[in-house]
Amino acid sequence: MNPSESEFDVVVVGAGFSGMYLLHKLRQLGLSTRVIEAGDDVGGTWYWNRYPGARCDVPSMEYSFSFSPELQQEWRWTEVMAAQPEILDYANHIADRFTLRRDIEFATRVESAHYDESEQRWRIKTDTARTYTARFCVMATGCLSVPNTPTIEGAENFSGDVFHTGNWPAQGVDFSKRRVGIIGTGSSAIQAIPVIAEQAQHLTVLQRTPNYTMPAHNRPLSEEFRQQAIENYDEIREQQRQSMTGIVGYGFGFGGADNVEPTEAILETTAAQRAALVEQEGFVAIRRFADVALDTAANELACDMYRQQIKRVVKDPRTAEGLMPKGYPMGCKRPVIDTHYYEAFNRDNVDLVDLRRGGIETITATGVQTVQGHFEFDTLVYATGFDAMTGALQKIDIRGRKGEALRDHWEAGPRSYLGLQVTGFPNLFTVTGPGSPSVLSNMLVSIEQHVDWIADCLTHMRDRQLATIEPTLAAEEAWVGHVNEVAQGTMFTAPSCNSWYLGANIPGKPRIFMPYVGGVGEYRKKCDQVVANDYEGFVLSA
Ligand code: FAD
Ligand code: N01
Question: Do 364 and 420 belong to one domain?
Answer without folding.
Answer: no
